[in-house]
Amino acid sequence: MDNAQNEQLQQELFNDTPRWIPKSNVKSTQDSLAHHGIAFEIFDRGIVIIGKSGVGKSELGLELIDRGHRLICDDLVAGQLTDNQVILSAPQEFGRGFIEVRGIGFIDLARFYGSHTICTSKELFLVIQLVDN
Q1: Are strands 121-129 and 45-50 parallel, antiparallel or unpaired?
Q2: Per residue in 69-128, pLDDT tens?
Q3: pTM of the model
Q4: Closest alpha carbon to 47 in 38, 58, 56
Q5: What are the strands, taking DSSP E only, across 1-133?
């Protein structure tokens, strides 16, 4: 993806909800949005993973953490438009650093993996949608 395509995608997130994101999952204002999903810093890039409940977002998240990547937030991803970039973060301090895994519950990443596994914010680079077969 070149810079022009990246900028177009980021603008689309704020000007009109993308066709591939169910509108019922997005809450937005003029310069911010919140979406159901999980966000990571992967190789210094902000990546959001979306998909239906139970599709495996959190399980994939634990695999990414095991491979050295960092969690930005789980369940609700906040995005803020700043200088033509979307900055990903947790929508609130409460819950930051926790990931919920179906059948296990909430996992405190700092306690079990170390505080280095948590990232407070990152510029959006890519959105991935997981689907069932």
Answers
A1: parallel
A2: 999 999 888 888 888 788 899 887 777 899 988 888 999 999 999 999 999 999 999 999
A3: 0.76
A4: 38
A5: 26-28, 32-42, 45-50, 70-82, 85-89, 98-101, 105-108, 121-129
Q: Which two tokens stand for residue 59?
A: 């399980």
Contact at 8 Å (CB) between 42 and 122?
A: no
Q: How many helices (H) and strands (E) does the chain have?
A: 3, 8
Q: Report the C-alpha gap between 45 and 38 in whole angstroms.
A: 14
> Cα separation of 128 and 48, whole Å?
6
Cα 89 versus chain centre, distance? 8
Residue 99, burial from CB neighbour count under 10 angstroms (0-12, 13-18, 19+)? buried
Contact 35, 77 (CB under 8 A): yes
Backbone angles phi, psi at 83, to 5 degrees: 50, 50
- Which residue's entry shows tokens 């977002």? 57
| Domains of the chain, earliest start first | 3-129 (3.40.50.300)
